Amino acid sequence: MKCLLVVTESAEILFYWTDAAFEKNLREQYGAVENTGDRLPAVEDSINTLFAPLIISCSTLIEKINDIYTSFVTENGHHYILHQFGECLYIAVNGDGSESEDDLRRKIFVLKKFMEVQFGMVTLNSTLLKKELRPNDTGKRGRLWKMLQGLLDTYDLLRNQEQSFMVEAVERLIHPTLCEQCIEFLERRVVQQINGSPERAGEEVLHAFILVHTKLLAFYSSRSASSVKPSDLLALILLVQNMYPDISDHGDAAAEDFDVGSAPEVYYTPQPSPTGKKTELMGAEEECTPVFQFVEPDIQMAEDSLNILESEHRDPAFPRRVFLEATFKDGYCPMMPHSMYCLPLWPGISLVLLTKIPNSQVAVSLYNFLEAFSLLEKKLNEVQEGIPHSRLQSSLPSLADLRTKLDKFIRALGNIDQQLQNTWTDFKNKAFLRTGQGNAQELLPLCRSLRSQLCAIYRQYFVTEGQGSHQRLSENLQKKAFTMMQEKLTDWKDFLLVKSKRNITMVSYLEEFPGLIHFIYVDRTAGQMISPSLSVSDDSTSELGKGPLAHFIKSKVWSLVRTSRRYLQKGYTTVTLRDGDYYFSYFLWFENETGYKLEVIELPVLSDDSAPIGMLAGDYYRKLLRYYSKTHQTEIIKCYELMTIHLGVIPPDSILQQCCDLARKLWEPSRIPLL
């Protein structure tokens, strides 16, 4: 029985996700009481009734002591986790014992990540975020909530099935020769041809990558592009899996080559699962119905779980707007707008293009202004009374530069936002007084207003207009990329689909490492992992077989990951423990660029309500690398993790030696140039 809720301080629901058991409980609890007609009360109304006392209590605590509950357990054993982001309260509930407090808190932070990818810097302003999450148009609201619910369903499914999503790292499909060929093909035949075409409508392909199910085959970035952060890449993989779920393994289910002149090409994708029924994402092919097809002369697409576009033209050629971190030589933007094109070559194999959109540089300018006003607001908050003009200038030497740049920026915008011009003029008149006095109490609300209006411009440029814009790569260009990529991989298709299920096997390690049952090796700097395949499905086999043993070992692996996170949260970098007939081992260490292992330092201990350890939920390892680099500023620092399961009959000394040898053996394959 599960629920995830986003509400305002006034108990207005901005988003909810529930499973079938939770909805059933709501109907049993409120249906008989509130039902005055033939219809049962809406789920949203019942949720509001159930949670209103808790929300009001939290609002009162914030008002009185500026704090809220972080977690509690009710008499009936239901776990509640709460977290406040701005003016939005996130509540995660579990009533069946299937999720720990860490799982619930992780789900909250993952939902926040989805919203950042979906709305960009609009998430920095609670008022604008409320408008996006709860639009007045009920149809648009329903599609948006359905899309976010589908993402949570997909995340829940992948986290329980895929090792890469359990440890939150990208898993590569290991085949160096094909990988290099595909990278070269993406560069010369896909990216360069599209970027050299007049049909690209002002867009430029920055990144192109190939996915086989959840595994990354090849990734190419143009020379002018910023690198894609591993957490963003993992989120994109999840988006693709939600758009085109894994409905078959390989073979007969693969689509035939796309031919423009032939009959309409139909791709089969399951209808969106009802809320809470995540297992239906993996339904059999014969139970699916076609939800979109390429039709000449126009490409049309039926509505699916990812459709949030306001436009009536819902076709697969229409890109999805995503916001990703970007770093440049002369700038930085944590949520840079991109267009994402996902071309399903065959079921399970997709080509994804990320493009730079026209006017995207506006986002960098807006972020710089937001940061400047945040800094200014922080300085003004430290001042309790009027400050002299000279003191303001000395504490913020860049204020004059900010004035020049924002004046120029507003002139370039034209009359797009008269309110911003008026507020900025008012700010300048009060900040740059001839008398040399600027009142902090007057400037603070103007700072907040300017930040809000800058976010509103960002929303207008990249979120609102991005949903309805028809400016995109032409359908002809997309078809060319689709056809070329299919021709390149046709002979490899079946091999790749099988390889994705048995990427690495334990057979090649058993002779050298006797007693080793399983391992997970993660390069946390690159955000990539290597691990033997671990499949327990009925239609695939591994060294563990299909029976109870496979499920048992999988449960042990998942338990090892959770255990290692708990110890890492407490500051431990090395853990060895015995669990019945098995030994668990966990190691985290740092190296320099040459592979020399660096000394161990004392890691910070995290509080129970901090962001969960991982990449999607706060990017803990990135912060850890920054923390370690403070004492090694002249070196490039790498961070690695190794988790192993051994038979309990192996002596502990032998296990430690094996772990050292295994890490050394895995060091070289991790250098395959995919990113």
Automatic annotation (TrEMBL):
Cellular component terms (Gene Ontology): BLOC-3 complex
Gene Ontology molecular function: guanyl-nucleotide exchange factor activity
Segments forming domain FUZ/MON1/HPS1 second Longin: 204-366
FUZ/MON1/HPS1 third Longin domain mapped to chain residues: 515-668
Pfam families given in the database record: Fuz_longin_1, Fuz_longin_2, Fuz_longin_3
Domain FUZ/MON1/HPS1 first Longin: 2-157
Superkingdom of the organism of origin: Eukaryota
GO BP of this protein: melanosome assembly; vesicle-mediated transport
InterPro entries documented for this protein: FUZ/MON1/HPS1_longin_1, FUZ/MON1/HPS1_longin_2, FUZ/MON1/HPS1_longin_3, HPS1
Protein name: HPS1 biogenesis of lysosomal organelles complex 3 subunit 1
Gene: HPS1
